[in-house]
Task: inverse folding
């Protein structure tokens, strides 16, 4: 399994200039590749291959007056930019034919020099290395200072240098994990749990535990509004406007980092304590079109479930997603009788068949666990004990990273 380990880097003034050149050269090569393929499509000609584009847009272009500055950066950065353009076209055509699942993708677009997020990638043949002082040595950039928060478990296959919208620099390493070593990191357990995600409480577990929603965006809303108001009053194109833009971006980055850290801590704890986990496959995109859209995005359910999914795969746990149409709030978890739909303001209800009093969210979490059919064998491996009614989504297709301190926990951004 491949993961990304991201670390904050601190280039000096000269290295920032060299990185800006590399970002710009990679962007120009990418745009040239998109333009070359668009011209071929318009003229009815076959698409140029990656090898032809490499010769035309890099090797020959370096010898021309208009593109001679491409030789000031590592050739690997330019080659990887061509690969990115090729991958974008492949994904677009796969989306058109239906080979790629998920929402339809549009054709690749030109990158702008005004994009606030820039990145370049160095593979192993770029001869980058980490020196004895812990600095990241990049070709034609130099030895960049890295703030290491943990050691790399194995030799990285590539490194991506990223400048985010807040002006921060990160080095993201691709690591191949060892399944045997990952298995020893998690304690043996026979516990299973169902999770009901919500807004009042971020998650309610079938054990009765309620995890309060931090609401990072709501808490920072006053600060964000003030920063955005100051930005709107600055003259476009001025240095003061750029300073105000960075202030807004840093405020948003703090919210994003705090939310990601919360998701990592909670998902790691649940994976560590439970052999099997059951959640609902919610339609977050549909729910985000309601009046609760801001609260939905603030909770970040999709990112949290994605973390549970990859961590369960990494550490040998089982994650079961039940269908979103499962009536988890309508069924009594004690006797199994369906008591009918209930308005959202009803937080507690009494079963008319057995008289059991239920907390709405806790009862839903128990029903999620039951619907998933989680059980544990004597060896601790989760199984489904008997025939389980097929979910509606099983007859069709089931419904895609980078970052600072939080991403360093397990590397996925």
Result:
């Amino acid at each position: 399994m491949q993961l990304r380990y991201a670390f904050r880097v601190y280039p000096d003034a000269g290295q920032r200039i060299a990185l800006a050149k590399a970002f710009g050269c990679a962007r120009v090569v990418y745009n040239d590749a998109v333009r070359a393929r668009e011209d071929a499509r318009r003229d009815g000609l076959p698409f140029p291959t990656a090898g032809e584009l490499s010769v035309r847009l890099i090797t020959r272009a370096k010898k021309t007056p208009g593109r001679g500055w491409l030789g000031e950066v590592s050739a690997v950065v330019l080659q990887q930019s061509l690969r990115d353009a090729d991958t974008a076209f492949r994904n677009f055509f796969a989306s058109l034919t239906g080979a790629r699942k998920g929402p339809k993708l549009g054709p690749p677009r030109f990158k702008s020099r005004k994009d606030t997020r820039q990145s370049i990638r160095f593979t192993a043949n770029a001869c980058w290395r980490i020196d004895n002082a812990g600095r990241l040595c990049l070709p034609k950039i130099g030895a960049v200072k890295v703030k290491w928060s943990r050691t790399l478990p194995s030799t990285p296959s590539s490194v991506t240098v990223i400048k985010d919208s807040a002006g921060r620099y990160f080095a993201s390493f691709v690591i191949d994990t060892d399944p045997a070593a990952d298995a020893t990191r998690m304690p043996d357990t026979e516990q299973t749990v169902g999770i009901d995600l919500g807004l009042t409480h971020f998650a309610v577990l079938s054990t009765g535990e309620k995890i309060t929603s931090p609401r990072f965006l709501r808490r920072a809303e006053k600060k964000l509004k003030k920063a955005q108001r100051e930005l709107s009053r600055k003259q476009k194109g001025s240095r003061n406007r750029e300073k105000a833009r960075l202030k807004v971006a840093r405020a948003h980055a703090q919210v994003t980092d705090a939310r990601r850290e919360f998701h990592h801590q909670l998902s790691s704890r649940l994976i560590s304590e439970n052999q099997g986990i059951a959640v609902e496959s919610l339609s977050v995109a549909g729910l985000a079109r309601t009046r609760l859209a801001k609260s939905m995005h603030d909770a970040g359910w999709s990112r949290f479930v994605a973390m549970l999914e990859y961590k369960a795969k990494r550490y040998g746990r089982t994650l079961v997603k039940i269908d979103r149409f499962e009536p988890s709030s309508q069924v009594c978890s004690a006797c199994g009788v369906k008591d009918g739909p209930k308005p959202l303001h009803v937080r507690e209800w009494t079963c008319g068949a057995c008289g059991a009093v239920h907390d709405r969210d806790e009862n839903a979490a128990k029903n999620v666990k039951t619907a998933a059919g989680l059980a544990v064998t004597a060896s601790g491996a989760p199984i489904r004990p008997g025939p389980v009614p097929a979910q509606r989504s099983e007859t069709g297709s089931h419904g895609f990273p980078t970052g600072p301190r939080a991403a360093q926990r397990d590397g996925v951004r």
